[in-house]
Design goal:
The chain is 22% helix and 17% strand. The protein is an alpha+beta fold. The protein has one domain. The strands form three sheets. A five-stranded mixed beta sheet has the order 7-5-6-9-10. A hairpin with a 2-residue loop joins strand 2 and strand 3 (108-113).
Length: 275
């Protein structure tokens, strides 16, 4: 009991420092205002706007590197093929019609059996691979369209048909020999094939030549500049590189039909011929 004068009774001491109000006020916390929230959102949006193009370019570069790797392996396979077949490269295409219709091409072989209903079609690795399973390497990681040749499961690359592969319907049907190539490091062998209707697998030189003299439709054998506006090429010495030069000058009838983003590797036939 306290005395009437407000002093504690004897024998009981109360410290002033321990006296607290029964209901102490809670500390006040500062909240996030709408303006601060909008500033944070704006900063995040700005960072994304800066980073996303860089990430997209990095992905495109990675696809280009993978594409060059594919092309280089194809060039090595062509050299291996030539070593096994009397120094000749694989023919670009030809067809046999017996019990089956067999369309042989450098990348895929298509067998169609018309005696069954419906007709059955089997696609296997082509002449370049000598029947071994390397199909997926024929898909360029930078090409998203479908193949437009028979039922090819993968697509995106073409083969120098004007000067090296030739074929059954060409002015020179037999493929070239390795010994005929004067400058292997500057003679295109494989590349990113593309034209107005999509993919193409038969690379054409821009101007007439003995291999396909009189051929109409050179616009259908152009290269696709789809790797950051550049194209990839594998050469006869089995190296691959990214090529930036693009030419669209050819016969007037073909010139008008060359698709945007496609073209030839050189203004003349120098990147394709055997010289």
């Amino acid at each position: 009991m306290y005395s009437v004068y407000g002093t504690p009774p004897k024998g009981r001491q109360v410290s002033c420092s321990t006296r607290r109000p029964r209901y102490a006020p809670l500390p006040v916390r500062a909240g996030v205002t709408l303006v601060e929230l909008l500033v944070v959102i704006a900063v995040i949006a700005l960072l994304l706007a800066i980073l996303l193009p860089s990430l997209g370019q990095a992905r495109a570069l990675a696809r280009s590197v993978q594409c060059r790797s594919n092309l280089r392996q194809m060039a090595i396979a062509a050299c291996d093929y030539a070593n096994a077949f009397a120094d000749r490269y694989p023919i670009a295409y030809y067809t046999e019609a017996r019990q089956l219709i067999v369309s042989y091409a450098w990348d895929f072989t298509t067998k169609r059996d018309l005696s069954t209903w419906p007709a059955t079609t089997v696609v296997t690795p082509g002449l370049l691979w000598r029947g071994c399973g390397m199909e997926a390497i024929q898909q360029c990681p930078g090409y998203e369209g479908a193949a437009n040749w028979l039922t090819d499961p993968y697509t995106g690359y073409n083969y120098n048909t004007s000067y090296i592969g030739h074929g059954q319907g060409e002015a020179i049907p037999a493929p070239a020999m390795v010994a005929q190539i004067r400058v292997p490091a500057r003679t295109a062998l494989f590349g990113d094939g593309q034209y107005s209707a999509g993919a193409n697998k038969f690379m054409r030189a821009p101007w007439a030549n003995p291999g396909d003299v009189g051929f109409a439709g050179r616009h259908a054998g152009t290269q696709g500049y789809r790797h950051l506006k550049k194209t990839n090429v594998a050469f006869c010495d089995a190296h691959a590189e990214t090529w930036s030069e693009r030419y669209t000058d050819t016969y007037p009838a073909d010139r008008r039909r060359i698709a945007p983003g496609t073209g030839f590797l050189s203004a003349d036939n120098s990147m394709y011929d055997l010289e």
